[in-house]
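Ticket #4471: structure export looks truncated?
Reporter: QA, pipeline team
Priority: medium

Steps to reproduce: submit the single chain below to the structure queue and open the exported record.
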Amino acid sequence: MISRDNARSLLGQVDERRAPFSRAAAEAIRVPTLLLGDDRRQPQFGAILDALERHMPQARRETIPMAARGLNHDNPEAFNRAVLGFLAAA
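Actual output as written to the record:
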C-alpha cells in the first residue's frame, strides 16, 4: 500500500517550515501543465485544483473517474489516456 510504504517520509515533514504555495508562484508557471484530479476525494482537493487552474496560464485539467488518491492504480486506462493525450498535445 502506498500510504504504508511512504509512512517514514512523514517523519521528515513534522518540523518542516515550508511557506504556503502562493498565487504568484502558480502564475509564474508558464509551461504546459497537466492537473489531475479524481471524482472520489474530499471537495477541498477539487478547490485546490480550481485555484491552480485559474492561475496557471497553460494548465489543462483532467478528472479521472472512479478514482481516489491512487489515480494511476484506481483507473489506469483513464489515467493513461489523460497523460498520453496531454503529451500528444504538447
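Status: closed, not a bug. The export was complete when the record was re-opened. Leaving a note from the reviewer for reference: Helices lie at 2-5, 23-27, 43-55, 71-74, 76-89.
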